[in-house]
Design brief:
By secondary structure, the protein is mainly alpha-helical. It contains 9 helices and 5 strands, in the order H-H-H-H-E-H-H-E-E-E-E-H-H-H. The protein has 2 domains: 87 residues, no CATH class; 65 residues, no CATH class. Helix content is 52%, strand content 7%. The strands form 2 sheets. It has a 3-stranded antiparallel beta sheet with strand order 1-3-2. The longest helix has 16 residues.
Length: 172
């Protein structure tokens, strides 16, 4: 399996294939196979590809995406830093516009990113632990974020490209 990990190349290809990616999204939404079958394929691709790509060598998600933190995330993360919850919220967080009871880090890149490593990795928020969310069920219900993350994450890029080859190009 030939994987692309060069972020500059991924960004360029994402721009070139923007329309194609949205057409493929529409194809997946209308795909006549059961959603479980697509999930199975995506999970298999994700497992194979993630075993070959080290996220800690990239950390682009930490540079480009602000994770959403819930109360538990805030409590655990601040404890890992040795900070009081209120002090942590005041210094590093802002309320999320879409979900008022949740928060985001107040800067990009993540204020806890040093090089390609998280300073508080063992206590990172669930949104960070779960990214790029390709292991979850109901892949076709999250295609908007998949297309958005295609240009940011080598895992998403490669899974989506292989998925195109397995499902779409075979049907052309």
């Amino acid at each position: 399996m030939r994987l692309e990990t060069d972020l500059t190349k991924i960004t360029r290809i994402a721009q070139e294939r923007k329309e194609e990616n949205w057409r493929f999204r529409s194809f997946l939404k209308a795909y006549d196979e059961a959603p479980r079958e697509i999930d199975r394929i995506v999970h298999d691709l994700y497992q194979r590809i993630s075993s070959e790509i080290d996220c800690q060598q990239c950390a682009n998600c930490c540079r480009k995406i602000q994770p959403i933190l819930n109360r538990k995330d805030i409590r655990v993360f601040s404890r890992g830093l040795g900070l009081d919850v209120n002090q942590f919220k005041e210094q590093f967080l802002v309320k999320d516009d879409e979900t008022p009871d949740k928060f985001r880090f107040n800067t990009l890149p993540c204020p806890f990113l040093r090089g390609n490593l998280c300073l508080n990795y063992e206590h990172r928020p669930q949104d960070c632990r779960s990214f790029p969310h390709l292991h979850k069920r109901d892949f076709t219900s999250r295609l908007w974020e998949v297309v958005e993350n295609y240009s940011l994450c080598p895992l998403v890029f490669n899974v989506y490209e292989y998925l195109k080859r397995e499902l779409w190009h075979k049907n052309w």
